[in-house]
Amino acid sequence: MDKWFTYVDGVWRFKLGTDSYAAAREAAKACQFFAEDDEDEQIDDHLLSCYNCLYRRWRINCFDCYKKVGTP
Q: What mean pLDDT is predicted for residues 22-49?
């Protein structure tokens, strides 16, 4: 998962911004914690995407994952 995320200020931050749909899908596929967010909160047409995950919290130009565990 560290290929997509970096550990910053105690949370895992997605490195690739808000327009990297292929990477967000690949990361979600590899994640054991993915959980679908409410439909009205989803932005990717493919369900299995970090952009659609219940545990992501948006920042201005990326998101933080609050379910990924561990520290670097």
A: 96
- Token digits for 29? 């596929």
pLDDT at 70 (0 to 100): 59
Residue 16 to residue 39: CA distance in whole angstroms: 23
- Calpha distance 58→70 (Å, rounded): 20
Q: HEC states along the chain? A: CCCCEEEECCEEEECCCCCCHHHHHHHHHHCCCCCECCHHHCCCCCCCCHHHECCEEECCCCEEECCCCCCC
pTM more than 0.85: yes
Q: How many other C-beta atoms can be found within 10 angstroms of the C-beta atom of residue 41? A: 13
β-partners of residue 46 are: none
